[in-house]
Amino acid sequence: MTGSLNISAVGRPAFFLIRLPVCVAQRFACLTFLAYAFLAAWPVGAQRPALISPEVLQDRRVIFRFYAPKAQDVRVSFERGGQSLTKGAEGVWEATLGPLDPGSYRYVFSVDGASVTDPRNIETERMQVVTRSILHVPGAAFMDIKNVPHGAVAVVNYYSGVLKKFRRFHIYTPPGYEANPKRYPVLYLLHGANESDDSWSTVGRAGFILDNLIADGKAVPMIVVMPNGHVDQTPPDLSFLGRTLPSRPGGPQALRVELLDFPQEFAKDVMPYVESHYRTSADRAHRAIAGLSMGGSQTLNIALANPEKYSAIGVFSSGILGENVADWEKARLTTLDDPNSKKGLKMIWFSTGSDDSLITYTRATVEMLNRHGFNATFEESSGAHTWVNWRNYLYQFAPRLFR
Amino acid sequence: MTGSLNISAVGRPAFFLIRLPVCVAQRFACLTFLAYAFLAAWPVGAQRPALISPEVLQDRRVIFRFYAPKAQDVRVSFERGGQSLTKGAEGVWEATLGPLDPGSYRYVFSVDGASVTDPRNIETERMQVVTRSILHVPGAAFMDIKNVPHGAVAVVNYYSGVLKKFRRFHIYTPPGYEANPKRYPVLYLLHGANESDDSWSTVGRAGFILDNLIADGKAVPMIVVMPNGHVDQTPPDLSFLGRTLPSRPGGPQALRVELLDFPQEFAKDVMPYVESHYRTSADRAHRAIAGLSMGGSQTLNIALANPEKYSAIGVFSSGILGENVADWEKARLTTLDDPNSKKGLKMIWFSTGSDDSLITYTRATVEMLNRHGFNATFEESSGAHTWVNWRNYLYQFAPRLFR
Predict the structure, then answer these.
(1) What pLDDT sits at residue A252?
(2) Is A153 in CB contact (< 8 Å) with chain B?
(3) Residues A155, A168: contact at Cβ < 8 Å?
(4) What average pLDDT does range A14-28 have in this prediction?
(5) Alpha-carbon gap: A343 to the closest alpha carbon of chain B (Å)
(6) Region A321-342 average pLDDT
(7) Stretch B163-169: mean pLDDT, rounded?
(8) Which label site among A96, A368, B159, B295 has the fewest CB atoms less than 10 Å from its CB?
(9) Which of A52, A158, A294 sits opposite B238 (nearest CB)?
């Protein structure tokens, strides 16, 4: 019995088309060809030569590699800074950075001016309109994966009646949630501008931070809901293409859309979905909300629209944004001065880094809230407007909840 | 009161460093600067100009765009075929393909020989060692998102005692699972070579297929567990780099590792984790397993090691691989001829496309099983070794389960 194995049929592109004899009588040849057909299938084959990027060394230096045989200039870019890669054998560019502080970083390669993710890195972040590669440098115990009981992080799709389209959120359910049919408190946790419902679970490592806090007995088991705070996934400016494409206004108007429209969707779609589908303790004492940057401002808009719903509010590296504090205050005077707004509010916690220029917004917002009798606390941290701080803030904020 | 807003502090790289006056008295200027600081933050700013890719038109033609101001040659590559892009204004390359059949496709751009994902596309697949961009062309009702009750797809991290490392699986819980504390049947669903636990939920659209089948009353609500069938995430061959890097054997030996080691991990880590953490009906009548290609061969190795555990087995575009059928048979004679292996086995279902060269393996495996008294059915489909078939097979297989 003889046959033939068409390599393209297991996925390699047409230019790799080779028909190999497969002969059951010659067993070794059969197994060799079959194995290569699988292991050299298109997804890897199209990216020869094989290489690893990023490679994290024991001393926390990191090697980045990128295959670009004809490029003149390849760089790796982080949110702050970057470095040129050097061309080596077989068109593989390489750079070694660090040692880097433990943590997660997002980065891209810039190849002759074209910005691309690292195709060899399977860790990515889905942002608002782009994908980013994620590097994790282990060594910070509070956010590394450890051999402790783990929760689960799910993606949930739903139809938003407010926005008239399909949307999604991420939801962390703590260890024990599936087996133990009790109810759990809920933290709603919002991302920043340009990010998405994916961000807290990738670069933000929220699931690992919660797993570790719960395992150490430092936080109570809780559900964490991470919605998508951008109401639109299209980039703001496409006119240069000279054609009509889906678009949305840029500049101040776009930010105001996020700050005002998302809170509507949150109140009418996100929270009702979570509370009708998950085993939440749906009362004020067991409901908290927090967010970073744009999400911190959304948090204030959401929570102060219905303060009777939340027992804890967290604002990370933010304050009232996109609107004058005095105007914001004037529009909410009744709520701000209502004793019921404060009666069950155990905590309204701000933290912003001393090098973060939004600290002036934080201060103005805290001062205004406290003028109305709120007991807002502001813990100024070191650092700037970065995920280093936001992961730390979650690690500090979550243990204080639902006690 | 005046302040200053450092744009780099909200994320733009140092070369964009501009200090802008922020003046609360001049409200319009404040809001403008603040909004741009957010919306033009690094993740988008580093990928100017703004553009959309891929753009799916009403007639199912698809426009791909890629910004590469200095490139000489840009192509978009699918698993079968591809097309060159044409350079247009401002360094934006563009190509229009199709109309394409409804469905999900994975693709990369090839830029002067460097293979990269589409950085503007937020839909990606995490494969074994690389990331891929995913294009979804709507129009196939069974796999599109619809306004029906949706389940959730979670990522679960666990420590594998067999493999001595952290691993993960995806798990689909059906609509109603969280609210209704009953037990559910379980389908274990395995991916193919080069793929990962992510693949059935991205290019495979398993969650949407199940949501739609359940909403139509065509399938019973079930849990679907999608483990990682590769025991190693490192590429097989790195020696050309002239340095010692994490590696693993290539060729036949690597395939045999997947086919033999993963079933051990499945039996000792994956299934026990699922059955102790989720509300499964943990008996033969409520447990099924299926897989595609390499995962189909793993399915046979897993199920025939413990046939008393499964009431349904699905093998998609596969058969016994990496091993001679006669050898495989000889090693399992006792099990194959044990009446208990067949007593509660309601279905052992194979489907392979007539253009798929693995069809000879399917036929040989079905023939061998039926020689031992199994009632294996083989439904030959049209098509080849592609996700078009695997999504269709899931759509045909799932409705037959747990009835």
Answers:
(1) 57
(2) yes
(3) yes
(4) 31
(5) 31
(6) 94
(7) 96
(8) A96
(9) A52
Q: Do B14 and A44 touch (CB under 8 A)?
A: no
User: A-B interface: how many C-beta pairs under 8 angstroms?
Assistant: 359
Stretch 97-126 of chain A: residues touching chain B, C-beta under 8 Å: 106, 108, 110-124, 126
What are the angstrom distances between the C-alpha of B49 and each of A29, A72, B92, B229, B249? 52, 21, 8, 40, 43
| Probe site for chain B from A126, A178, A226 (most B CB atoms < 10 A) | A178
- Name the amino acid, one letter, at B311: S
Distance between start and end Cα atoms, chain A: 72
Give the helix/strand (H/E) hosting B84. strand B82-84
Beta strands at A186-190 and A223-227: parallel, antiparallel or unpaired: parallel
CB of B166 within 8 Å of a chain A CB? The answer is yes
Pairing relationship of beta strands B55-56 and B86-87 according to DSSP bridges: unpaired
Q: Which residues pair with A241 in a beta bridge?
A: none
Identify the CA nearest to A123 among candidates A98, A144, A106, A147. Answer: A106
What is the distance between the alpha carbons of residues B75 and B97, in angstroms, rounded to a whole number?
12
Per mean pLDDT, which range of A187-201, A262-276, B232-246 is the poorest? B232-246
B-chain CB neighbours of A42 within 8 Å are 79, 194
- Show residues of chain B in contact with A129, CB under 8 Å: 44, 50, 120, 122
Tell me how far apart the alpha carbons of residues B286 and B187 are, in angstroms, rounded to a whole number.
Answer: 8
Cβ-based neighbour number of residue B332 at 10 Å? 18
Per-residue pLDDT at B26: 37
How many percent of chain B have pLDDT more than 70?
82
Chain B residues with CB under 8 Å of A193 CB are 10, 38-39, 41
Dihedral (CA of A271, A274, A276, A280) sign: negative
DSSP conformation class of B99:
P
For B211-238, give one letter per residue: b (16+ CB within 10 A) or e.
bbbbeeeebbbbbbbbbbbbbbbebbbb
Q: Write down the ipTM of this complex.
A: 0.88
> Which residues of A fall within a CB distance of 8 Å from B207?
157
**Interchain pair B196, A55: CB under 8 A:** no
> B9 vs A356: CB contact, 8 Å cut-off?
yes
pLDDT at A30: 42
pLDDT tops 70 at residue B384: yes
